[in-house]
């Protein structure tokens, strides 16, 4: 149950969302993306004043389970091009958008492969490429790296940072991983246990570009990680009391 969730995401910002298990983080993202009706409140695109009641054309989503979001009977190129038929009428322009997106995620030469021929990390890159090919203004990601191994997760974190830098996308990403939230975000939104509120919004003043080794070795990274962990631990304790 979401009780009182209020925060703003600025254009071009990377915001991560963390909270105790069951706090409603995925529910929140579905409301932001217009995939789930709200019982109250509103989600508004400030630039246009549009109230989100259904999936808007400005937003693309990447979900946790790449094996369910990709069509196994379609090759990679066709998977990436799926959302483009209604937005890019010309076939050559669609192909160009697919090629650019695959290049952006490092999958040149894999357009004719099937998803099941790729590793888990590569399949999630296909899902990210599909979102990029759509050319959204906002990218919403629901624990997109939770289903891969630790090294692949680190590679995908750096990939999404590079993509965000190259494209200027606004990104909202939900994660259970506190290190990931701090490493990726400009700000970290910390949610409480149910009924859920925003406990705090922590600004991340770490330098960019970020590095898995250098950034995570900084004393400030450890301080921010501890701040977020304390808030989540307190929320978990209060929820179980």
From TrEMBL:
The keyword Ligase does not apply. GO terms for molecular function: ATP binding. Pfam families: ABC_tran. The keyword NAD does not apply. Residues 1-218 form the ABC transporter domain. Keywords: ATP-binding, Nucleotide-binding, Transport. It comes from the Bacteria. CDD domains: ABC_NrtD_SsuB_transporters (cd03293). This is ABC transporter ATP-binding protein. It comes from Georgenia alba.
């Amino acid at each position: 149950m979401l009780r009182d969730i209020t925060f703003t995401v600025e254009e071009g910002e990377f915001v991560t969302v963390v909270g105790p298990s069951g706090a409603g983080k995925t529910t929140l993202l579905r409301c932001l993306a217009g995939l789930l009706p709200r019982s109250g409140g509103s989600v508004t695109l400030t630039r246009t004043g549009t109230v989100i009641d259904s999936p808007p054309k400005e937003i693309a989503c990447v979900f946790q389970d790449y094996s369910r979001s990709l069509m196994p009977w379609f090759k990679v190129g066709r998977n990436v091009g799926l959302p483009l038929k209604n937005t890019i009428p010309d076939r050559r322009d669609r192909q160009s958008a697919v090629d650019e997106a695959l290049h952006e995620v490092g999958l040149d030469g894999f357009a004719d492969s099937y998803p099941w021929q790729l590793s888990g990390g590569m399949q999630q890159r296909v899902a990210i490429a599909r979102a990029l090919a759509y050319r959204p203004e906002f990218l919403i990601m629901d624990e997109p790296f939770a289903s891969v191994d630790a090294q692949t997760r680190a590679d995908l974190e750096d990939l999404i940072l590079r993509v965000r830098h190259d494209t200027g996308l606004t990104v909202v990403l939900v994660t259970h991983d506190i290190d990931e939230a701090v490493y990726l975000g400009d700000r970290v939104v910390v949610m409480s246990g149910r009924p859920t509120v925003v406990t705090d919004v922590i600004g991340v003043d770490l330098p960019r570009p970020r590095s898995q080794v250098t950034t995570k070795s900084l004393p400030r990274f450890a301080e921010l990680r501890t701040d977020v962990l304390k808030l989540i631990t307190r929320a978990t304790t209060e929820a179980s009391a």
